[in-house]
Amino acid sequence: MSWSVVRCGEPTRAGLCDRTTDNQQPTTPIDIHDIKRFKEDPAIKELIRAGNTIGCFYVESPAMRMLLKKLKVDDYLGLVAASSIIRPGVAESGMMREYLLRHNDPERIKLAPPELLRIMPETYGVMVYQEDVLKVAHHYAGLDLEEADILRRGMSARFRDRPEFKEVERKFFANCKSKGHPDAEAAEIWRQIESFASFSFAKGHSASYAVESYQSLYLKAHHPLEFLVGVANNFGGFYRTEFYLHEAKRAGAVIEAPCVNASEELCSLVKGNDQLSVVGYTVAQASVREDVRRNNGQPTTNNSIHLGLGNIKGLTTEVAQLVLRERRRNGSFADLPDLLRRVPLHVEQARILVRVGALRFTGRSKPELLWDLALMHQGSKSADPIPDLFVMKVEAPRLPDLQHYPLADAYDELELLGFPLCDPFTLVECRSDDQTMRRSEDGNAIPRRQFPIVGRDGRLLGNVPGAARTMQTATSTTDNEQPTFLARQMSSHIGQRVTMLGYMIHVKTTTTSTGSYMSFGSFIDPAGDFWDSTQFPSVAERFPFRGRGVYRLTGYVEEEFGHCALRTQHIEKLPWKPDPRYGET
Q1: Residue-wise pLDDT tens digits, 466-488
Q2: Across-strand partners of 441?
Q3: pLDDT, tens digit, 9 for 90 and up, residues 291-303
Q4: Following DSSP, what letter does each residue of 316-351 receive, concatenated?
Q5: Which of 36, 44, 80, 152 shows the smallest number of beta carbons within 10 Å?
């Protein structure tokens, strides 16, 4: 059965939830508004605890996923609080860290001012929501509710110079002094109130966001592939389409290049009855299970996502619609000549379809198809050509043997889709010097992996990242290669210097109190798992990130509240292998 999720026009994920539920089988109806049941759903709780929330409304960013892992919450109120403390007003004032400390260490809660703890017991005495300002101003500083509201509205920078706000500020400190509050404590609380000018949420706002988060979390937990196809087609998430498709791979899907006979306008899901369709499998686990099936002669996963014709850069919307309309009207295309006869394609548009692999069903290689196109193209520029009454068989020209380079497919995909469909780590350039060569028994030089990957059991994995077979153990290696570690191994190397490979997902830069720049990176490792890095100003200045690609980072593994990250000391962007079509291989 083919499942197709079309693009949603809504700016939030609410429309996406409705659109995804439209694509479920009639025998399994979904009440997307049953939030009470969602709050107790074990699968949703696990997603929240693990920070496995990519694609889910408001909780998918690297910072939010990191926060969820540190909080280890799995309940509604915890998610509401997380949705608020991630905001700049709370985070930049230091209150987010204080909330984390008190949440993870009950003894630290005792250090909170008793009156604040009495006012805000749910948040451990930490101001998290906008209305907390009203509570503190009224109960702690003795301001009446009108004055407290002036203080709340004064969180806007343009309001602070008004005389009434200055009067409230004076009265705040005077009342604190008369009530016996220490001057330092009152000044710190005022500083925290001021920080809310940098945006914070009312509790009702955070609560409504959390409801929508639960809706998307339910869809991801129980209908992951349908949901992720919908997210990819929505074009409105935090990440690029590539990484929603990567998440679909982790859920067991195979990503297929666009095809004139199989694709729709956008991504579409062809779903089989395969047990891989459970969110949480890594790419390594999925590939091992597929290897077992192949070795046993069993079919691999039937869950496939076909990229749409609309995902192809350079292909006009008009051409995509012409292809789809002709296919629906008169059936699939037999080959390239049949496509050219039935659809008025400009030669450059036809070249794009060939290069992206949209005619691979013909069984002919791209070089052969491109030669065929150059020799036989008779496309018309007319938008409504007169169809042939009789189909004339065109004799295929005799061509020399044309070599096809699989690596060239990746470069075509990078250009026409924006990302490769293959493992990006296989595109990394390897050195060919003595350090990356080993000797066989007959003395011949044999290329060796430049970046050995250490598996769960401490053994070096083989040439395919995440594959089942292993090489020698890391401790018995006889060469000087420094093994690179996977994200899942960081927790066992806390405080140690390690080297890691990462395919860049996102980098966030920020400014320190001294005006220096630092950055936070998010990456995918060769096993398909996510990991994070921190670059302090000295490193960020010396080793700036240079765009998308694969990086090798060296630094120390640090752990905070159960979440591991790499404090980077050195960064190197690894070059892609040269395109074999334009030079020596």
Answers
A1: 333 333 333 333 345 578 999 99
A2: none
A3: 444 344 444 457 9
A4: -HHHHHHHHHHHHHH----SHHHHHHHS---HHHHH
A5: 36
Separation between Cα atoms, residue 444 and residue 117, nearest integer Å:
73
Structurally, what CATH architecture does the domain formed by 423-585 represent?
Beta Barrel (2.40)
What are the residue boundaries of the structural domains of the chain, listed by start? 88-200, 423-585
Residues sharing a CB contact under 8 Å with residue 571, sequence separation 6 or more, in sequence order:
535, 539, 543, 545, 551, 552, 553
Element (H or E) spanning 504, and its range? strand 497-511
Q: How does strand 445-447 pair with strand 550-560?
A: unpaired
Whole-structure pTM value: 0.82
Tokens standing for residue 565: 């990250």
E strands, 257-414, are 268-270, 304-306
Chain-centroid distance of CA 264 in Å reads: 24
Could you tell me the CA-to-CA distances from 471 to 427, 431, 528 in Å, in that order?
A: 21, 20, 20
**253: closest CA among 293, 281, 231, 215?**
281
CA–CA dist 236, 239 (Å, integer): 8
Asked whether 220 and 244 are in contact (CB, 8 A), the reply is no
pLDDT tens digits, one per residue of 315-373: 999 999 999 999 999 999 999 999 999 999 999 999 999 999 999 999 999 999 998 89
